[in-house]
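Bug #77: duplicate submission created two jobs. Keeping one. Sequence:
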Amino acid sequence: MAKKAAAKKPAKKTTAAKAASKADDVRAKSADELNTQLSGLKKEQFNLRFQRANGQVENTGRIRTLRRDIARIQTVLTEQRRAAQAKG
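Kept job's structure:
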């Protein structure tokens, strides 16, 4: 018996350009806007953490996305803070 070659789908990869564009979007915002967005994301993360503990979370991938978005915003805030200290 001959086996048919299985058609494999290429793995979904996040390109560096896509990640860079997200960082560029975040860098375009002011510190106040970033802090507001950060607090909203942390609240959402808190709610998802409880949903996961109770087994009610529907979109488990959202947890990972939130974690990375929070890290991205914190990184940009740190960059902005250090740039401001370097200036004066």
